[in-house]
Amino acid sequence: MPRTPSHPGLLRVVSSETGNFTSKAVSTRAFAQGGTITRLEGLTPGPKRYSTVQISRHEHVELNSDLLYLNHSCVPNVSVDVEKMLVVALKDIIEGDELTFFYPATEWEIGITINVKPFVPLYRQPDCIKNVKGASALPSSVLMKYPLSKHIRELLEERDRLERDRLERGMRRFSLEELCLAPRLLRDPVRCYPGNENSS
């Protein structure tokens, strides 16, 4: 049965037969830079999944619309503003353009829960990040090129402040792999054993 468009006159979904997660949202009209493409409406709270967007430190929502097909890009043409609940054009968009946004602008971690996995962008641009793991895995120098959500900016500031404190104390930053090899009392069971917090 054909899909009923959620945003007729604004965008449409172009499906792909090459596999999962290869469909895309395409503009059906022109938008000027800075213009509102649509409001974020009909959202429902839910656990972090591939289909959700992070709207605060601890909240994720299902989009429940064709906006689900906004793919990641390192040269995005839209921003998902989760404070104003808007999708905004970052540059002039013409009819037929694929609509994309920079996932780490809203997502702090991708891959910590069993329902979400880091991924390699299908259409990688030159100098694009190789694996999309969320803002927590990227340096500030990369992230500050993009319009970031408030919760991402706050978490980034906290992370960088902690890193500066570590350096001042002469402590090096341990990788997740090193932490998971540490004695049991020092391990983070949620990160080392997702879905099984009692593992040893």
From TrEMBL:
InterPro entries per the UniProt record, alphabetical:
Flavunoidine_N-MTase, SET_dom, SET_dom_sf
Question: Can you name this protein?
Answer: SET domain-containing protein
One Pfam family recorded for the sequence: SET
Source organism's superkingdom? Eukaryota
SET domain residues are 8-104
